[in-house]
Write a structure and sequence with these properties.
Elements (H helix, E strand, L loop, with lengths): L14 H7 L1 E5 L17 E5 L5 E6 L3 E6 L4 E5 L1
Antiparallel strand pairs: 1-2, 3-4, 4-5
Length: about 80
């Protein structure tokens, strides 16, 4: 009989690990603080990393991570 293969034990994820996997989308602002629009009239968006100290809670879903930030945003990041 063959021995069933053992999968490695899952590694516990920390808030810092989860924060590295997600980014928040924020609008680009000009020097006067107004949103910069593209040619279609939509706001230009830039992606900023989330800091570990911003993470309120997180959940490892296997192929992705859900992070809830202290300001109430729920962000998803792929592994």
């Amino acid at each position: 009989m063959s021995k069933p293969s053992e999968s490695p034990a899952p590694i516990a994820m920390t808030a810092a690990d989860a924060a590295k996997l997600v980014e928040r989308e924020v609008p680009v602002l000009d020097k006067h603080g107004k949103v910069v629009l593209d040619s279609d009239g939509k706001a230009n968006i830039k992606r900023l990393p989330v800091k570990a100290e911003e993470v309120l809670a997180f959940s490892d879903k296997g192929d992705h991570v859900i992070v809830v930030t202290k300001d109430g945003r729920k962000l998803r990041g792929d592994k």
